[in-house]
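User: I'm putting together a teaching handout on how multi-component assemblies are represented. Below are the sequence lines for each component of a complex, exactly as they appear in our records. Could you produce the 3D structure of the whole assembly as structure tokens, so the students can see both representations side by side? Please keep the chain order the same as the input.
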Amino acid sequence: MFNIESYRKAGSVAEAVRLLRENPLARLIAGGTDVLVKLRKNQEGFHHLVDIHDIAELKCITRTADGDLVIGAGSCFTAVAESPLIRRYVPVLAQAVRTIGGPQVRNMATIGGNLCNGVPSADSAPPLLALNAVLTIEGGAGPRQMPLEDFFQGPGRVALEQHEVLTAISVARDNYAGYYGHYDKYAMRAAMDIATIGCAAVCRLEDGRLQDLRLAFATAAPVPIRCKATEDRVRGRRISPELLDDIARAVTKDLQPRTSWRATKEFRLQIIATLAHRGVRQAILEAGGSIA
Amino acid sequence: MAIGKAVRRVDAIAKVTGRARYTDDYFRPGMLVAKYLRSTIAHGRVKKIDTRRAQRLPGVEAVFTYEDVPPIKFATAGHPYALDPAHQDVQDRLLLTRHVRYWGDEIAVVVAENDLIVQEALELIDVAYEEYSPLVTPEAALAAGAFEIHAGSNNVVGESCYAVGGNIEEALAQADVVLEGRYRTQICQHCHIENHIALAYMDDLEHIVVVSSTQIPHIVRRIVGQALGLPCGRIRVVKPYIGGGFGNKQDVILEPMVAFLTLQLGGRPVKMHLSREEGMIGTRVRHPFTTQMRAGVMQNGTLVALDIDALSNSGAYASHGHAVAGAAGARSRALYPRTAINYHAKTVYTNIPAAGAMRAYGAPQMMFAVDCMIEEAARRIGMDPVEFRLKNVARQGDVDPLTGEGFESCGLAECLQRGKALIQWDAKRAARPRKQTGPVRRGLGVACFSYATGTYPVCLEISGARIILNPDGSVHIQVGATEIGQGSDTIVAQMVAETAGIPLANVHVVSTQDTDVTPFDTGAYASRQAYVTSNAVFRAATALKAKILEHAGRMSGILPAELEITDGRIVRRDDRARKNMPLAAVALDAYYDKQRGGQLTVEVSHKTCSNAPAFGCTFVEIEVDVPLCRVQIKEIYNIHDSGIILNPLLAQGQVQGGVAMGIGAGLYEEMLIDPESGYIYNNNLLDYKVPTIMDVPDIGCAFVETFEPTSGYGNKSLGEPPIIAPPPAIRNALWDATGVKIDELPMTAHTLYKHFMKAGLL
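Assistant: Of course. Below is the structure of the complete assembly, with chains in the same order as your input.
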């Protein structure tokens, strides 16, 4: 039994925004895989719900005439993982979302919900950060856009007003064309687990050089995070085993893993360095590169 | 012939179609729900409790605290009652407690119309505590001057020892090599799918009916009576289908409370259903052990001495008490019966969740320690680990050196040979470099075990069976043996079909136990059901068959001795092809013939006075990813001597489930408790890492079929044994792969990281 005080089902994004504005205590529920867990614990702030799980306009995955990818925020992970567009143009995202929960969870949980929940362990975040994804947010006064990187503000905190709805996640053509990637989730078991560390590596090669590298992590800082200093350090360098070693060393300085009862900082750093090394290596191989 | 056939479970269709009724399906009109108020400290005393606001909440029927319950201390362990007071279980529980002994202890209970109101009411109860410092470890509990968790106990639940095979110090002095080790096993939880649930109601003013998800309905009846101070004849316990127990329902958890509540509320139905979070702390866990050991071994490979000292942590209450450490000790004796063994064990109280029975009852803890030591002994003298075990393990004809009972069946050596061949032990070892380097390394491991079949001679072993011939020639059989998912109903049907000559489809097993009508049996535990029930069923089916033939003889004028029942027909022994008579005709005649008529029924209560050790081993090959601190199982085989395999399909299921659970205990699972506060971090299935189907590899299993003459059908235990040997086998493989010896469980990535760092691998 859940302690739900009010429940309204929205038929459209506009209606959802209106219902949120009508009740300042209300918040959104989509797949429910996070919200219902909180309701089960009777956690404050989840007793008034506006349901957007059934809004068709939130479930489209399309490619614009310019070649940009637009993923409806209400797309469930199964839909994202199985989308021919995602698999063809940004397979690293499909790879990442397939690691979430189990099949039942992936049939319900949405990609927008994963981002709005704002936890450092969100598996969809590292690949989207590495793809320079941009969010579209609707609050009644016309859509606004925001880079995903600016969206995460702290553990469980995102740049979304109470009356706003995240409607879409976009990846511009320039950010994926010619890029190859790899995602690794390190967890204590192979399914039904949250990431101890998640690592997305996306790269573009040219003449045996790492022309661009974008490296992003989950559960390695208070929010999902890019490793900008490491990326700047290695951009344009010739591919070699030493380069991989250098990345593995450098990346730990970009991150702030912490000790909790779940894992120590030292252990997380060990995993971070190993995943960075192996992830970048795999991304380079995907891109057709070779490591002497 | 039905024994040895892979017949389908008799309850398979009912279960997969959702028709099988579990406790939660026993809805009663007007039923109330109840929930405990659990302490938010691990050790202390309630100074003040104010329930007035909760009582005033609309929808709340009643609130009871420790002040309202009978002042009767009772024991909860699902053991048969001991007539000797010295062997009775420790009576250290009240229905609710003022003295808080673990984080989550039960200090009050709310009864209300529904779950939401109950929850809201619980939040309205104000509690003030006087806090004591939590004693989380056995060392803290045994320290001089430590606060007594139970007054007068010195924090010791029990202590015992035995010595066999001569003086241990002399044996060690004569050994070529003496080794020492210290081994630690963790707190595990059963994680049965169906959480604890029970409901109670009264149909009259006298009798309390309890419906419960339990492994031990007849024992529940006794303990509910004891806890409430009522004669057990006024208690009726019904056990419907249950969704697993693994020993956690071989304990009395909710039943006395729901019985108390319905009694207080004029017989209104009251249900308690624990959430997973409550169940993981508020029921039972596996006792963590710390075992100190010395071994003496000769250069020729003879294991001459094992000196074992075990410290078992029972947590806040005794529950099964010292019995688990006692049973654990017996396992090494049966495994190495020609070795001098000195065994000492102590069980202590601490401020952590109470430990109780869990699959294999102390054997996983003890066999882990013993097998780690054995592995070290083999390596120290430079002997192949399998050869070393083959030289020392029990063989047919060996005698338990303490009880003097001979092992009438023992195929352990054959199990080791079979496993060695299955995993290609010799070829793989020969093909591998002597010392591996690089991030990913491979290792092979072996471990073996012994286990009992039942609890004799420590406890009583009674089983009961009642068979009724129906007018259509089919039979109904009622047994006290409880089906808890292990398949005992199916095995019972196979036994009746085998012995009485009745087609399996015509044997109906009454699955539900109801203590008002079901023959007595103490329940499903100790892997005893198929063994002790076999004799009761064999006797009952044999007697029924004799009655049928006698009646057929009276009908036909042929001597019963000349008749036989085959496939549901009465035939002549000397000429089976000749005109014969369907059993249904005999049955109908027995019911309705005015002269010969009389219902054909048999009831047998059988006491088993034997206990056959079962044996087996695990072989495993693993791959270790050193930088990621990760173990991947490439191949794993469990090979069992469980006597005759009654149903290969069910047997394989038991082995695969047990090995999966063993892999969980070896690599994944541990209940984590804050050493300062006693707070439990991971009482849920996200943070307590039970392996998923993605983590468990294909599991190979094989059986070395011996014939055990003390069983009605040649069988021995199989329910619990598969869980025992995988953890030490994996540990030995990890040592083989990396050169790192890990003497603690579980071998999670965190544990590996710690040891790999220490060894300089990272």
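A couple of points students might notice: The CA atoms of residues 187 and 305 of chain B lie 29 Å apart. Residues 462-607 of chain B form a domain with the Aldehyde Oxidoreductase; domain 4 fold (CATH 3.30.365.10).
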